[in-house]
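Q: A reviewer asked whether we had any structural model of the full assembly, not just the individual parts. We don't, so I'm hoping you can provide one. Inputs are below.
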Amino acid sequence: MTDLASIHHDEETQQLERTWSSPPGFFAWFTHVNQTNIGMRFIVTGFVFFILGVILALLMRLQLAVPDNDFMDPETYNQVFSMHGITMMFLFAIPVMEGFAVYIIPLMLGTRDMTFPRLNAFGYYIYLIAGVMMYAALLLKIAPDAGWFSYPPLAGAGFSPGLGLDFYTTVITFMEISALVAAIEIIATIFKCKVPGMSLNRMPIFVWAMLVMSFMIVFALPPLVIASLMLALDRMAGMHFFTAASGDPILWQHLFWFFGHPEVYIIFIPALGMISSIIITFTQRPIFGYIPIVLSIVAIGFIGFGLWVHHMFTAGLPQLGSNFFTASSAMIAIPSGVQIFCWIATLWGSKPKLDTPLLHVLGFFLIFIIGGLSGVMVASVPFDMQAHDTYFVVAHFHYVLIGGAVFPLLGGLYYWYPKFTGRMMNERLGKIGFWVTFAGFNLTFFPMHKLGLDGMPRRVYTYLDGLGWNEANLFISISSAVLALGFLLTLANALISLKRGKTAGDNPWNADTLEWATSSPPPSYNFRHIRIVDSRYPLWSGTGGLEQNPVVTGIRSDRREILLTSILESHPEARQPLPGPSPWPFWLAIATALTFAGLMVHMAIPLLGFLLCFIAITGWIWPKQLGAAK
Amino acid sequence: MSLHADIDASKLPDFSYEFRSPLWWGIVGLMTVEGTVVATLIASFFYLQGNHAAWPPAGTSPPELLLPTLSTVVLLASMVPVYLTDKAFKRGDPKPLAWMPLVSIALALVFLGIKAYEYASHVDFRWDTHAYGSIVWLMIGFHSAHVIAVILKTLVILYLARRRYFTPEKRIAVTVNGLYWYFVAAAWIPLYLTIYLGSRIWS
Amino acid sequence: MSPPQKNAISPKSILPGIVAAIIWLVSAFSPAYASQSALEPGGPLAAAIANLFWGMVVIGGIILFIVLAMLAVALLRARNKTESKPLTFTQSRNLVFISGVVIPALILTVFVISSAAVNREIVAPMPKNALTIKVTGHQWWWEVDYLDTEGNHIAKTANEIRIPVGKPVRIALEASDVIHSFWIPQLNGKTDMVPGKSNLTWVKADRPGSYRGQCTEFCGKQHAKMAFIVDAVPEEDFEAWLQRQAQPAREPVTETENKGRQVFLRSSCAMCHAIRGTSALASVAPDLTHIGSRKTLAAGSLENMPGTLSSWILSPQSFKPGSHMPATVLVGEDLGNLVEYLLSLE
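A: Here is a predicted structure for the entire assembly that you could use as a starting point for your response.
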């Protein structure tokens, strides 16, 4: 043990600041690679797309408020509902969850950055370009109009000849690269960058959840990438993967839902991690059932891949197989139940402070359980044949996705906002926002169960008078404004608190994980000292708090360097120099987008794009001092 | 300040190799993603086969075996120089790294040449003829693009090696390039079995 | 996107809207509308599914209530105490194991078995001599063919299906262009119509009546207006109706009808529609041989009356934008004659 006074001096802090800071200026913005910068970009961009998705939903509700409405023509409506799905699933849910992972995980692991900072930046630009392209298409009224699921043959060249579906197929194909690289990066970071002492069984549950999410992305997204590429080739090169003539439209459904069902869990599992974090902090207790919770998350990750056929019960598949998928779909209720009861056991008699983050978690309980129960219902083949593609299913998955993911996400926003910005969000406004959102949500989506069973199909741009759906639709449309108001209050709260919020300090909630052991917002190098931990709740263990903890010395501060540790036990193994700011990730993203989107224009552009990608990758990895080893 | 240090990291190496390196995990992740793509392609091949009485569909003859088998042997052989280079470099012998990758690249180019010849003049279907044509051309295209990519990447490694950028300790880039080469060559085996033998089962 | 219309939602409509909606929620399950509700079954299949649904709702409601009650107890238990009151390890473990694993496993087993039992009923093999109706989905209408037990064609109609009460009817589903889905909520769940494949479903109506069906797989611009009517009638009425449908079109009687037929045959109508017994034999669009006997136009979306029929012929795009039926320009008396002729085809 050495006395640290000798190395803890301001000069080194300033050097760390110089080494890790991102260069200022507009053009330099495109070179930033620090995980806090990129993570925040993912989160902010994700919420911007969320707002756009909500606006599209409100437009739909305006159209459906009264029967035979002509506020939108069918073509516009179809683009709007397709873009609503594409936005919420591809442009909001996955990126925002990844943004939280990218921002928070290195902090929770106690390290200074992720393992591949430039890859992070690349993933962000890919995502941004994809999102901007999709919305440019919508503004030009050439957005995809065959739904986010785009079933061929409707999505094929014969029935959707316009550019809309070309945007869908090409942009979806390369947009998923963003999620894939982030997933690989999160896995490598969790494996190699935990602080010494943070063995796998001491890792925060939030990190476990993000690890499982990343593994799911690695296995779920490639089938979508390849399926959307096949659809693009069907459309543009006359191929026959999904044509009725020689290919098979049902193959698309298998590939799409083999991605699409795990996708739901990719969104939901990070939310589970957020809930555990919030419950631990607000009960000020170790969580009950760390191991069952981790195993449940892993189990959900596995079972999530065995359910995709329940989206296809009406497609005329063999019956025996269908009943198997009923059972596997029902099975997922068990790991979900285990987690819910572990949380209840943790909350039991704990006198928690009912602040906004915890309120959102409690809102999650009600909404998610309803969504889970209706999910078990639609897992039944006969009942699903009635409910499938009606408003019942719309109600069900909004209960699951908004209840299961958006409520915890907003809870997480209130919870980590002080860390992101150094200021607290307004508690009073937060509580009002929660109750308005909660009421608006249930008033909007609960009646949809009934509407669906009354026979109203999904994805209709209008409905006839006299079918008994008028009152419900008007009621839902009005309620959706309440829901939007709730979201607006949270947004306003986040904006106002940026300047006016109470100063937060390092650890305003007295939380247990390492992200609260540094200043708020964290410095560019995250931590002045790399700690050594000896417990699952490092900030709660020991007696003296921050000052009395053992730390790692000898990590260089004159260049970007992080500590690598072993996967299971987190023994220190090596120091890893990290690359700094670079424009190449941006150029590679441009080249990648050109490769895929170029398909829309001419077959030769992808070849050019391939070449440009190679040049960009070479520029990216090219060492600064070549021949230094001579 | 009563901070105390338990670990002095300055004594630790500032490089890592094999599975201790994040880059190794990164490339394993990439290979997992691409392996899933290969699995998806093969699953699609057999799914589409289920729709047809004959596979390849009537009017298309099943593929010949001689050329593709020959090219497969050539591609598998290209892994040998990669292995030898890696082994020698680990031992501390940098010489093979300066020329052996050229042998691998030459073999891979022969493989590509045979493929190009085969699909230009030896098959009687196009990608837009039927579902069989589509999936076979996609598999070949997907794999060939990877062969080209790994050749380009190896050229960059070769150039850097000749400028003595790598040392036996700082060799992770050489290792992962080798791993990726193994992956591209090995991924061809299931594709080969699917396209050439899988097409004969139902023909 | 067009600017929001002022009359889409006006503030004035909000309050009555809320009141109406509350009334609607309260009277939620009263059979006020006979049209398209899965919860008002008209046959044994839909009834079995509705029963399954209500069973699930009751059990699900109990589960929801118990879990939320436990959550409330957890939160309120130490409310007025100075110390928190945690569970012991054993209590927590039992709570998680019993309520999170054992009870759900039991309930889910019962659920899977009851679901499979209802499913078995729905896929039960049909008697060999059951009537078979082939329904083909088109963008955006339904082609309906009646087949005898040997599979021979008896009659063709569109957008309306008539079935005998109390008899099981086999329905063969096909699609000509994109995927559609065939759904009559009051009779059975939906089954997709996939181009290049043939799916089977069946229906049986216990009581005579009109049941509305609608396409439930998104199929393009006019997915919303792709509906149909199923009329369940006593068996003898059904047989008589089928006899009539099998006949070629009735010959014009009046001068107007005769002129109307001339209009039909020389205008663009005959390029897509067939009227059996005349020279119009095209099969791109609904067969109009007995159009006069149908209740609706435009795939269950308009009432079949002289007024609606005339406006439909003149301007289908204003009612069903994107429909494949082009506007037909008819001058003078032609339109009236045509409409009178068509409606005479009973």
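A: Points you may want to mention in the reply: Chain B has a mean pLDDT of 90. The longest strand of chain B covers residues 4-8.
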